[in-house]
Amino acid sequence: MEPRISVITLGVQDADRARRFYEALGWTGESPDGEVVFFQAGGMVLALWRREKLAHDSEVTDPGGWGGVTLAHNVSSPAEVDAVLAQAEAAGGTIGRPGAKAFWGGYTGIFIDPDGHPWEVAHNPIWRLDDDGTVHLR
Question: How many domains does the chain have?
Answer without folding.
Answer: 2
